[in-house]
Write a structure and sequence with these properties.
With about 325 residues, this protein is an alpha/beta fold. Helices cover about 45% and strands about 10% of the residues. A six-stranded mixed β-sheet has the order 2-1-5-6-10-9, sandwiched between helices. The protein has a two-stranded antiparallel sheet with strand order 3-4.
Length: about 325
């Protein structure tokens, strides 16, 4: 868990996408220190030359600082630029400098092209808006472009897909810094789903829906979330949805962009994370409550899904 407020610098260029700028500003630019009891982020917006920039909607953003602000950044977020906008060499230089000294560097949507121009994505996995993935891979063949995910977390460099995936990646950063409980509180405040994993498909028939018991399909998801400690099979979910297993699985993937099995495991992991953060329950009790049955299974799932042990996670985020 972060023990001091991270200095976040948001990079905006001419033709910047207002949606992604707004997402980053909402998550990192509002001081929630008193509300959440943790040192929240401090946000600065910079632009090449410190000049006012015109967003893709025509809105003008003024009061930005120059790109030398990146020298003090703990977290750099690059929003999408207009594709025809030339990226200044000084910005590319400062992005490389920030990365070398240990700042985390993030791109939202087609901001990945800026990181690519800086050479920061060479030899790495990355993503961008699904419509632009082919162009990114063609222009920068050293990048392992994945068009089928919401975001890629490379540790020191993170990239997101288009539009709403910016929310997913920003919440993922908050979750990584402050834990699942605070990320879930923020998601509720923003009225968005608390977690969509990075490996979920970008292009699905509909976004992750708000759960509504009036719909037999969506209602069963709410039921599953309320019964994670019990054995749950695809056959159970399909029966509650009045569908065949095959039809249910097909609709599930089309609607949520992931399989029922992966969704259930992720829901159980998220519940276990919150119990580790907010209770003193022993691991066996948490494993049972979250549907993993045994502490050994919980440990294995945690290592696979969270890249740490439950005990280490609790020490990091407890209190």
């Amino acid at each position: 868990m972060r023990n001091k407020a991270a200095n976040v610098v948001l990079v905006a260029g001419e033709g910047a996408a207002l949606f992604e700028l707004a997402v980053a500003s909402e998550v990192f630019g509002i001081d929630r220190t008193a509300e959440y009891g943790v040192p929240w982020y401090r946000l600065t917006v910079c632009s090449p030359g410190g000049r006012a920039v015109t967003c893709d909607t025509g809105l003008r953003i003024q009061g930005t600082v120059g790109v030398l602000a990146l020298r003090d950044a703990d977290l750099v977020i690059v929003s999408p630029f207009a594709q025809e906008t030339a990226v200044p060499g000084l910005l590319l230089q400062e992005l490389r400098r920030a990365h070398r000294r240990g700042a985390q560097v993030v791109s939202l949507c087609t901001g990945a092209f800026v990181l690519a121009a800086a050479g920061l994505l060479n030899g790495r996995g990355a993503t961008t808006h699904w419509e632009d993935c082919e162009q990114l891979a063609t222009e920068y063949p050293l990048i392992q472009v994945d068009p089928d995910v919401l975001y890629v977390d490379g540790g020191d460099i993170l990239t997101s897909a288009g539009s709403a995936a910016a929310i997913d990646l920003c919440l993922h950063i908050v979750r990584r810094d402050y834990g699942a409980e605070i990320a879930a509180r923020l998601a509720r405040e923003l009225v968005v789903p608390p977690f969509r994993e990075g490996g979920q498909a970008q292009y699905i028939e509909s976004p992750l829906p708000a759960l509504d018991q009036a719909d037999p399909f969506l209602g069963v998801l709410s039921w599953a979330q309320a019964n994670l400690g019990e054995p749950i099979t695809i056959a159970d979910l399909a029966k509650r949805s009045a569908m065949s297993k095959r039809n249910f699985a097909r609709r599930f993937v089309a609607t949520l962009g992931t399989t029922p099995y992966r969704w259930i495991v992720r829901q159980r992991l998220q519940l276990a994370q919150r119990l580790l953060e907010t209770t003193d329950l022993p691991l066996e009790a948490i494993a049972e409550a979250s549907g993993f049955a045994t502490a050994a299974n919980l440990r294995a799932r945690f290592l696979d899904g969270v890249n740490t042990t439950p005990s280490a996670y609790r020490r990091t985020f407890r209190g």
